Structure formats: C-alpha cells, structure tokens
Amino acid sequence: MVMNCNENSKSGASSRCAGCQGSGFKVQIRQLGHGMIQQMQHPCNECKGSGETISDKDRCPQCKGVKVVPEKKVLEVVVQKGMQNGQKITFPGEADEAPDTATGDIIFVLQ
C-alpha cells in the first residue's frame, strides 16, 4: 500500500518545473522530410510529469519529495457461511493514497 507522507511536510516548498513550465510534459518537434514534421509529447523527465519540483533542501527525508510512502497493512477478509460467488467484500477508503485525490476502496470479489 502507499500512504500520503505527513512527516516533515513543507507545504508550498514545491515550485513550478523549469523543464516543462509546469505542464508536466515536453513537446519535441523534428523534421522528417521536405515539408513534413513530427510532433511528439512525452512526460517531463525532470518532474516525472507532475509539473512541480522540490529543491533538495526542502525535500522530505522520509518520502524524498514523492509525497507518498510505502506501508504494509493487513486486512482481514471475513467470508461468512452462505456467501455467494461474485459477492463483494469492500474496505472503504483503504486503497493506495495519492496527494490531492480521494482514496478509493479495496474490493474483494468471491469466486
């Protein structure tokens, strides 16, 4: 599982990526032949597509600026007598976390 990092968090320490001007991607244009060009768009390698960078001095020592940390968690799935094939067991809000997004659910489907 991945959880949001709350340790040594410096809100506002990130800045707009200079490599992509905050868009999260770079556009590469190359000429293929007479009058023909190719335009390719790919994620920025400096900010890994996030559009922001964090300086080394402001980077959290726990998450290294990624804003999430791996965490092990044990979920106990109780299958009750009489449960049917295809029935779902849901753990609300227990899925991987990501900054600025709602956490999803973990759903087990019985087979």
Write a brief structural summary.
The protein has 111 residues and is mainly beta. It has no helices and eight strands. One of its GO terms (biological process) is protein folding.
How would you sum up this structure, described in words?
With 111 residues, this protein is mostly beta strands. The protein has a domain at 10-60: Chaperone, DNAj Protein, Chain A. Helix content is 0%, strand content 33%. It is built from no helices and 8 strands. It has strands spanning 2-4, 14-16, 25-33, 36-43, 52-54, 68-70, 88-91, 106-109. The strands form 4 sheets. A two-stranded antiparallel sheet has the order 1-6. A two-stranded antiparallel sheet has the order 2-5. InterPro entries: DNJA1/2-like, HSP40/DnaJ_pept-bd, HSP_DnaJ_Cys-rich_dom, HSP_DnaJ_Cys-rich_dom_sf. One of its GO terms (biological process) is protein folding. GO terms for molecular function: Hsp70 protein binding; unfolded protein binding; zinc ion binding.
Secondary structure elements and pairings:
Elements: E1 2-4, E2 14-16, E3 25-33, E4 36-43, E5 52-54, E6 68-70, E7 88-91, E8 106-109
Antiparallel strand pairs: 1-6, 2-5, 3-4, 7-8
Protein name: CR-type domain-containing protein
Keywords: Metal-binding, Repeat, Zinc, Zinc-finger
Pfam family, one: DnaJ_CXXCXGXG
Strand runs, count: 8
**Straight-line distance between termini:** 24 Å
Label the CATH architecture of the domain at 10-60: Ribbon
> CATH fold name of the domain at 10-60, please?
Chaperone, DNAj Protein, Chain A
Shape: flat
